[in-house]
């Protein structure tokens, strides 16, 4: 069917009842010559527009934006809006709605061409439209009366169009009722979102104050009705009127089709801000002005072009920008970024007297040779699952389908749709990079991953999946290692229990992606969840194991810190001893060589510093402090006569008063340790 959307036909109905002649009570300053006014002249009083004038201006602005962006195939009943406006005050508002329905039943040139091409299937050409009624309703019941009038009129005119070659039945109609009232008054009608009144008619109600508020509301509606988006061009340099030698930066808001934002909205780098116009708020994309380029040959690769329409067409910045572009100049637009190089995403240029917003490709062009996948796309990713992807392509090859196949409900199964359905099932969860998956790197999970994607499972398939899950539980019990990728991580990576938690989560994601295929898929998930829910004693055991590992890590760290601190202190102490020893030796040599020095009363041989002291045998390595202590002790032992008891002692125990043993049987021992004696 050749479908024409509701935006193909738009009919405005503007009420001209006596109330619409009232003032909107939003004043406009008329006398602008304030500084140069001659004394004695009374300034002009401000003026205000009527509700009728505000409604007509807002409707014409709606039509202007629509015709700027869609000069073809988007029609508005201009004769009804302009030529018959003067007659509408005679007709009642109901007569205007009836006339709007009659206009929607008329065949347009585009519909006539489509019917001519289809010939015998002319009834397949669709007919949809939209009615926008601007009025001043008395209450919500008055609004319902207008909706009933439109619904009955559509029903009657569809009967007439069924027997006519010049009329078409209305398949879908959108009724947009806008209740407008003066500023400062209370609204008697409440807003209501879009509601379906019948299979043919939908209705929505907007209660808006007149003046600038009504113009803003219609500006928002035209964006919704025709899928438009807003782009604000910032930092436009413009010379001041009063000071020709100075310039200032201005902003201009443009409307265009929303497809101009699709590409760079996916990247997430776009600055989405808000445009506040007369108290309303709407989203707009901000792009920054770049230096104009006059040579279009040097421009970037373009992927789309869309007509634009300024929001405030009469403002000086909009007029200057429009004239600048119509003179054959082009302007590049960049995305505002806090860091990094600038990205040129769009360009403004005119063709044939119309201004277009061009979308520039900021990524690799499709005309260039693609990079080798083994080298990594963009030089960042190199661990693609190339082998698995080749197997995936072999499993999803398209082959000729000769024998017809029927579904359960008896309908013929289309091979292409069946292939698409299989491809969708196989790609519900399929990581592309090795480092992003664990289960697809494990041979133990292959039986489950290969059958879970099937549309239906057999009992044997369910048993194989359950065996795979039990094997994984056994691996976790044995604390077997998992193929966890450590690319981009520092240290040892996640602990063993964390690795298994990641594996179980990924396996659950894979199974849950296919639980709606059949009841047996649900059984596999139930088995998986039952194995994941561990008993409390096992959880407590794992918790104690983790606490013990943490304590061991802390104790190892404390011992290491203590050893480092102690070795530093020992080295400092040893360094001081060595320095003092050197000073004593130097003083002794000076005294010895001096001719006036008296001979020492007790000549004893000095201890040679290069004499190697006896070192006790030890199982482990001997520190420098131990070597030095043994040497000092050996030197000190030669300066005096050793105690006889220590020389004859056994295990540092010397027996005293041996003759007393014969008298009263008691023995007195002197224990010597480290040069000190103690009585026992």
TrEMBL record:
The keyword Membrane applies. Its main location: cytoplasm. Residues 535-566, 586-620 are annotated as: Disordered. One of its GO terms (biological process) is centrosome localization. It holds the Pfam family Mat89Bb. The chain crosses the membrane at residues 75-98. The keyword Cytoplasm applies. Residues 586-607 have a biased composition (Basic and acidic residues). GO terms for cellular component: cytoplasm; integrator complex. It is found in: Cytoplasm; Nucleus. Keywords: Cell cycle, Cell division, Cytoplasm, Membrane, Mitosis, Nucleus, Transmembrane, Transmembrane helix. Belongs to the Integrator subunit 13 family. This is Integrator complex subunit 13. It comes from Ursus americanus (American black bear).
């Amino acid at each position: 069917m050749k479908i024409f959307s509701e935006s193909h036909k738009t009919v405005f109905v503007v009420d001209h009842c006596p109330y619409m002649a009232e003032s909107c009570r939003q004043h406009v300053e008329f006398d602008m010559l304030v500084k140069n006014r001659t004394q004695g002249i009374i300034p002009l009083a401000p003026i205000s527009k009527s509700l009728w004038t505000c409604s007509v201006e807002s409707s014409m602005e709606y039509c202007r934006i629509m015709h700027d962006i869609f000069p073809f195939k988007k029609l508005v009943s201009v004769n009804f809006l302009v030529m018959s406006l003067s007659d509408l005050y005679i007709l009642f508002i109901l007569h205007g709605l009836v006339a709007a329905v009659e206009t929607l039943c008329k065949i347009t040139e585009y519909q006539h061409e489509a019917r001519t091409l289809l010939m015998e299937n002319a009834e397949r050409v669709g007919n949809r439209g939209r009615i926008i009624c601007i009025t001043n309703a008395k209450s919500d019941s008055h609004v319902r009366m207008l909706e009933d009038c439109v619904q009955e009129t559509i029903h009657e005119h569809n009967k007439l169009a069924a027997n006519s070659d010049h009329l078409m039945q209305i398949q879908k109609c959108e009724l947009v009722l806008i209740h407008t009232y003066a500023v400062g008054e209370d609204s008697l009608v409440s807003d209501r979102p879009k509601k379906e009144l019948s299979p043919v008619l939908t209705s929505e109600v907007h209660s808006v104050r007149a003046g600038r508020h009504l113009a803003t509301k219609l500006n928002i509606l035209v964006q919704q009705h025709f899928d438009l988006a807003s782009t604000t061009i910032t930092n436009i340099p413009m010379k001041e009127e009063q000071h020709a030698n100075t310039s200032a930066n201005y902003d201009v808001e443009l409307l265009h089709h929303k497809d101009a934002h699709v590409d760079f909205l996916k990247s997430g780098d776009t600055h989405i801000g808000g445009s506040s116009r007369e108290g309303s708020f709407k989203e707009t994309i901000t792009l920054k002005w770049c230096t104009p380029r006059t040579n279009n040959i040097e421009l970037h690769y373009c992927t789309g072009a869309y007509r634009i329409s300024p929001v405030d067409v009469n403002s000086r910045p909009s007029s200057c920008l429009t004239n600048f572009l119509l003179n054959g100049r082009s302007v590049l637009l960049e995305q505002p970024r806090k860091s990094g190089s600038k990205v040129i995403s769009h360009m403004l240029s005119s063709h044939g007297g119309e201004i277009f917003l061009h979308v520039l490709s900021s990524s690799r062009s499709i005309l260039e040779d693609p990079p080798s996948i083994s080298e990594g796309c963009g030089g960042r990713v190199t661990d693609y699952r190339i082998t698995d992807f080749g197997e995936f392509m072999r499993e999803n090859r398209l082959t000729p389908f000769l024998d017809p196949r029927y579904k359960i409900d008896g309908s013929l199964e289309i091979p292409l749709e069946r292939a698409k359905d299989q491809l969708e099932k196989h790609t519900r969860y399929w990581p592309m990079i090795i480092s992003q998956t664990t289960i697809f790197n494990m041979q133990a999970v292959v039986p489950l991953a290969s059958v879970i994607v099937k549309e239906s499972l057999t009992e044997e398939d369910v048993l194989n999946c359950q065996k795979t899950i039990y094997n994984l539980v056994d691996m976790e019990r044995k604390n077997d290692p998992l193929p966890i990728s450590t690319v981009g991580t520092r240290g040892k990576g996640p602990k063993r229990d964390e690795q298994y938690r990641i594996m179980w989560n990924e396996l659950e994601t894979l199974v849950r992606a296919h639980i709606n295929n059949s009841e047996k898929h649900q059984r596999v998930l139930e088995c998986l969840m039952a194995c994941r829910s561990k008993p409390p004693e096992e959880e407590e055991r794992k918790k104690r194991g983790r606490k013990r590992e943490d304590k061991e890590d802390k104790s190892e760290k404390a011992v290491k810190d203590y050893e480092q601190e102690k070795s530093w202190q020992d080295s400092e102490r040893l360094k001081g001893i060595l320095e003092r020893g050197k000073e004593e030796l130097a003083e002794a040599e000076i005294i010895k060589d001096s001719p006036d020095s008296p001979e020492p009363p007790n000549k004893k041989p000095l201890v040679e510093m290069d004499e190697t002291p006896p070192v006790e045998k030890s199982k482990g390595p001997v520190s420098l402090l131990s070597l030095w202590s043994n040497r000092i002790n050996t030197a000190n032992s030669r300066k005096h006569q050793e105690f006889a008891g220590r020389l004859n002692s056994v295990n540092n125990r010397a027996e005293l008063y041996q003759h007393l043993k014969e008298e009263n049987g008691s023995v007195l021992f002197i224990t010597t340790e480290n040069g000190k004696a103690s009585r026992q």
